[in-house]
């Protein structure tokens, strides 16, 4: 599988996720009094940048390419793969050796150093090449009412909006210190990427539903129009950038409204449609992950609809949205390897992995949500600032969830990585090149 086009991109996405997990471990260790003395000052900031950029940005953008190649059954530009490989490696290298100054801005935290930006630029260029090639191939399919196909096409339209938003942001946005500048630059693209992530959820949810039921997912014209609302909303959000600064309140309020209506409503309609066709199978990773992913997503979104201040309900919300996609992609990857005829190593671990990761994230989100309700501030380390027993208990619950989620992530990287490296073919299948 690793020698096929989709296999190479999937292998790289797993590597990026694994490196992101490694940096998450380093973040924890860098806060340890004994270990921190062995590391450069404030090294946890560099590890945090490495974790977010590799485990979220790289993992999800590479996964988008995997989905496009798989579902469109096309071979994209081979050289773009090596651009992405170099890009991921340079981002990891910059974080490992603490290059430049760290800026922990929202969406795409950065290291202000040429090596980091070269890596990020190469990854983005590889994404542009593949999304553009896929977009040209799928342009004529915008009217399809087949649920997986329409979601794929919708994701390609939104990817073009995302690319445009990056270019517009760098051309229009400027000023401020390091953190403020990058906050402005990445605010709108970061928000539009959430629309891309939403369409990726639809692609993977319907793919897992097809695996679970053995039938083509049913849809409707209403759901096709819901997908078009996703595209329109992303374009509208981009247009706001021409009139407002990303740090201005009107743009932030506008983005919240667009999220609530233009992103939330379409996904709710699709979730309702999927539940009508869903069949739970306790021993089938696709079925377990599909249910867990939808529940985690709904949990995170309802937290946002309930409103929050600058407290831990904010990370509770976005971890629900992002990890729902990660869980679904993990199950998709499991079936992708099986479809390509690979013998799954650590098969028992692979079957329980969605339970472990899903349960861990629900506990993690619950701990953050409850502590936020009682005023726990975000981006604050330790617990010396409070003696509230509810906050302490909820943060302890978050800790248990973190442990389970990390174990679940390690399980996925371990069995997927081992399976890819061993590359033992059961059937010799190499479809979807």
Describe this structure in words.
The protein has 433 residues and is an all-alpha fold. The chain folds into 3 domains: 1-141; 142-279, no CATH class; 282-433, no CATH class. Helix content is 75%, strand content 1%. It has 13 helices and 2 strands. It has a two-stranded antiparallel sheet. Helix 3 (43-72) crosses helix 6 (147-172) and helix 7 crosses helix 10 (285-306). It is globular.
Write the layout of secondary structure elements.
Blueprint: H1 5-30, H2 33-36, H3 43-72, H4 78-96, E1 101-103, E2 110-112, H5 114-138, H6 147-172, H7 178-213, H8 221-240, H9 249-277, H10 285-306, H11 313-339, H12 347-373, H13 389-422
Antiparallel strand pairs: 1-2
Helix pairs in contact: 1-3, 1-4, 1-13, 3-4, 3-5, 3-6, 4-5, 5-6, 6-7, 6-8, 7-8, 7-9, 7-10, 7-11, 8-9, 9-10, 10-11, 10-12, 11-12, 11-13, 12-13
Radius of gyration: 21 Å
Strand order of the largest sheet: 1-2
Number of strands: 2
Helix/strand structural class? mainly alpha
Shape: globular
Question: Can you give the helix content as a percent range?
Answer: over 70%
Which parts are unreliable, with pLDDT below 50 for 5 consecutive residues or more? 424-433
For the termini, the CA-CA separation is 9 Å
Q: For the report, how would you describe the main beta sheet?
A: 2 strands, antiparallel
Query: Which percent band covers the strand fraction?
Result: under 5%
In the residues, how many domains can be counted? 3
